[in-house]
Fold this sequence. Notes:
Elements: E1 2-5, E2 14-17, E3 27-37, H1 39-43, E4 62-69, E5 81-84, E6 87-88, H2 94-97, E7 108-109, E8 121-125, E9 129-131, H3 138-142, H4 144-158, E10 166-170, H5 176-185, E11 189-193, H6 197-205, E12 209-211, H7 218-225, E13 231-236, H8 241-249, E14 251-259, H9 271-276, E15 280-283, H10 289-300, E16 308-313, H11 317-326, E17 332-336
Parallel strand pairs: 10-11, 10-13, 11-12, 13-14, 14-15, 16-17
Antiparallel strand pairs: 1-2, 3-4, 3-8, 3-17, 4-5, 5-9, 6-7
Helix pairs in contact: 4-5, 4-10
Bound molecules: zinc ion (ZN) (2 copies).
Residues 89-90, 92-93, 95-96, 104-106 line the site of one zinc ion.
Amino acid sequence: MQAVQIVEYHQPFRLSRCGIPKPERGEVLVEVKASGLCSTDLHLLDGRQKLGKLPRIPGHESAGVVVELGPGVTGWRTGQRVVVVIDVTCGRCRDCLTGQTQRCVDLQRLGFERDGGHAEYMSVPVQNLIELPESLSFKDACILPDATACMYHSLVTQGKVGPNQKVLILGSGGLGVHGIQIARLAGAEVAATSRRAHRLKEAARLGAVPINPEKQDLFEAIREFTGGEGLDLVADCIGTQQSVSQGFSLLRPGGKLLVIAYLDQHFEFPSLPLFSKEKEIIGCRGTNRLELSEVVELVGRGRLQSIIGATFPLSEFIQATVALQRGEAVGRIVITR
Length: 337
Ligand SMILES: [Zn+2]
Ligand SMILES: [Zn+2]
């Protein structure tokens, strides 16, 4: 099969030919029809995350068709259309037992520690399958496990977003455009930042107040947006010291900063406002099966929209990464088959 591989850190992705994986006990073989390209895929090349034995096939947003059942698999049949949950979890630790599998102590991720979906086929544990409604295309479905469900986990579960709250989304890329919709769906008023005109236009189309921090004073814009009160929630999809500092200082007393991205290795916060204003800084990692099922349903019913700015065939994966780095697309870039 054709697959994208990380062969060595600090080297470019390689488009290779390799064997189709054989589904092990409890796994199924999925013919991948579409996979989402995340900027984390690019960051994997820097070696900061240990991927185990290389080569590794990246890709943590995948949708496709079940084509083979491994030994011991029941309840699934070939031909079923599925989207794939990223985390392969132990099922035994305290967080797994309460359904908070995104915090599993013994966690592996498809497209990280295990081979992922930027390939023609992938082998997946059955617990990681969610069936797709007919109304959902593979292209729209593939990005849900990360771009959409991660924002759903962050805003709904971690942030408890609700009606009339004032929410700021920092960064209107692949995550941000889905975050805007989720916060709006929850009844919040939303502002969103980007330095790129085409992304701000999309943010505005989705109902957010667009802010370009290079052209506008962000603090002034938020003062106006919140009537001087500050924000209930900031979802930081940028992950730099500058972005989290800005987000933190824009919060109202008791406001929550959702840390969704982690480009910089350390974040520093001033202690006095954290203490005296009882602000909260909340880490938000990935999603769990329940949240992804809810997102699949919302998108299937047309309540949320997958925003896909460009598609590339698997054979043009490298060109897709260039487009991602240039920030040309609005929303996600999807790799089709
Ligand atoms: Zn990702
Ligand atoms: Zn666990």
